[in-house]
Amino acid sequence: MALGVGPPGTDLLPVEEEPPLPLNTVTPEELRAHPGLARLLRGLSCALGPDGLNAPLERDLRQAEAALALRRRTWLRWETLWRGVQELRRDPRDLEPPVLQALERALALAELRRGPSAFAPLLPPAQDPSPLRARLLPELERRLAEKTGELSDYHGGGGSPRPPKFPRAPRRAGGSRRAYAEVLGRCGEVLGRLAGQSCAGAQAELDGRRAEYLEVKGAAMLLKIRLEELGVLLDTYPPDKVDAHRRIRAGLEAESERAAAQASGLRAALAAFGELGPEFGALAGEYGRLRERLGHRRWALRQLRPHQP
């Protein structure tokens, strides 16, 4: 394994180097013993290179190596930038509190956008990162320049490398877990603020939907009760009983109508008699008593003469 030589930054990436395999590894004795093998190897040497690849394969290999080197350089740039931002978070000695808060908010929103798609409607619109970038880039460049100088001093000279001037930060056990917990905490705070901002409208809409649900549920319960009532009536009254009840009801209604007509006629007669004055009332009373006496005497006569019709 050796260090690759290329654009700045790529010399820190390990590059695997393997010696090319020779095309012909047989001995002269084997070639003399097998003449056909010698002819085959001479034919292959015309089509294959010293590494055993033909021209198209060698071209594809070079293109793949170039693409891999480009990906490595891109990854190195982003990784350097990300570690610089993390160092700014751990050591914000030259950053103002508002800038640090804006950085934490931007990182938390970035983590949420990389999460489940269900969070997307709840997130606020993206803000212009130019002010934050203008404040952070000079600080990142300054710190990276310091580290570049320290690395140059460390690897410079022909003698043994000197120890770096800055102490190496010790790795703490469980650091990744704490960082994950911090990210989750910030995400929870952002979600809480978003929920608080949209709570009023969402609560009103939720109450309206709940009222509609309760109204529909009440109507469904009334229909169910009516259905149970009709089922009980069908079980209690078969068709023949219902027909008999209908005939009885028709007869009762007819009798009720006749009684109502008679009552109406009697009320009219009483009203007509009442218009004749109080003297007519005394005469009517006397007439009633006379009819009662006549009735008694007729009954007595019928009792005395039972043989006469």
Please give a structural write-up.
By secondary structure, this protein is mainly α. The chain has four domains: 1-91, no CATH class; 94-156 and 178-197, no CATH class; 200-236; 240-304. The chain has nine helices and two strands; from the N terminus they run ββααααααααα. Helix 3 packs across helix 5 (130-155) and helix 4 (97-113) packs across helix 6 (175-197).
The poorly predicted ranges are: 1-24, 157-174
**Sheet with the most strands: spatial strand order:** 1-2
How many separate helices?
A: 9
Q: H/E series, N to C?
A: EEHHHHHHHHH
Assess the beta-strand content as a share of residues: under 5%
Spatial extent as radius of gyration: 55 Å
Oligomerization category of the chains in this entry: single chain
What is the β-strand count? 2
Main structural class: mainly alpha
Overall shape: it is elongated
Report, as a whole number of angstroms, the end-to-end distance. 150 Å
Task: Please give the share of residues in helix.
Answer: over 70%
> Into how many domains do the coordinates divide?
4
- Mean of the pLDDT scores? 75
Main sheet makeup: 2 strands, antiparallel
Region (Disordered): 148-174
InterPro entries: HAUS4
Organism: Grus japonensis
Protein name: HAUS augmin-like complex subunit 4
